[in-house]
Design a protein that fits this description.
Shape: globular
Number of domains: 1
Number of helices: 9
Helix content: 40-55%
Mean pLDDT: 94
Order of helices and strands: HEHEHHHHEHEHH
CATH superfamily: Alpha/Beta hydrolase fold, catalytic domain
């Protein structure tokens, strides 16, 4: 999903886009049960690559992983990018919705994955994208279907068990960029405003014509904001 951002390497940045465990063909990976599992994997990767500090970015669940990384090993985080995410834990209603998804996956296997994707696509992509960019709709569906049901189940469990990271916000002192699609219905701009107000010195960019997957839907605008942040703030 970060393929459009790999172009930033041409500006001299080393861009690393790790797959979360199990996703995109990661067969044989142990299932995740929490965002800490994903954060631990990122720390292991940074250690293996001998990277001592990095600008850490995450979209949606990736933002929750970023918060987990800050809780566990803040020394690695030179800068932070939080895209289409929020600090709060799931509501009781949200947890029930995720339990329903887990039942669909458990009862239907790979067919369940397709059913979950069909339900989520209208929420993931903004109306402008769905109406005028069918190639992005097809690409997002293709990316989602490339991962097994077990990976989706692990991601859902991580989402529904994540802690409230709101108290963490006031402790974040590294340069931070917050990005959100103007038409994001899963984590609307109001959540990004709360992040912006909670993290001293942070920047907020709202991207027109994008829903929840702003990095894909409006990649040029996303990359422009990201490049400016990396050049002037980090």
């Amino acid at each position: 999903m970060w393929e459009p951002q790999l172009a930033l390497a041409s500006q001299g940045w080393r861009v690393i886009a790790p797959h979360l465990r199990g996703f995109d063909g990661g067969a044989g990976d142990p299932p995740a049960s929490s965002v800490d599992d994903y954060a631990g994997d990122v720390i292991d990767l940074l250690d293996e690559l001998h990277i001592t500090d990095a600008v850490v970015g995450g979209l949606s669940m990736g933002g929750y992983v970023g918060f987990a990384l800050l809780r566990r090993a803040p020394r690695y985080v030179r800068g932070l990018i939080l895209a289409d995410t929020r600090s709060q834990a799931d509501t009781p209603e949200g947890i029930e919705g995720r339990k329903k998804m887990l039942r669909v996956l458990a009862d239907n296997g790979e067919r369940g994955t397709s059913a979950v994707i069909d339900e989520m696509l209208p929420k993931l992509l903004g109306p402008a994208t769905r109406a005028s960019q069918p190639q992005i709709v097809a690409r997002v569906r293709e990316l989602a279907l490339s991962s097994p049901a077990e990976a989706f189940a692990g991601g859902i469990r991580a989402l529904m068990t994540r802690p409230d990271s709101t108290p963490l916000l006031r402790t974040i002192h590294c340069p931070t960029l917050i990005i959100v699609g103007a038409d994001d219905v899963l984590t609307p701009p109001a959540f990004s405003e709360e992040l912006h107000h909670g993290i001293a010195g942070s920047e907020l960019t709202v991207i027109s014509g994008a829903g929840h997957l702003s990095s894909i839907e409006q990649s040029a605008a996303f990359n422009s904001a990201l490049a400016a942040f990396l050049t002037h703030r980090v």
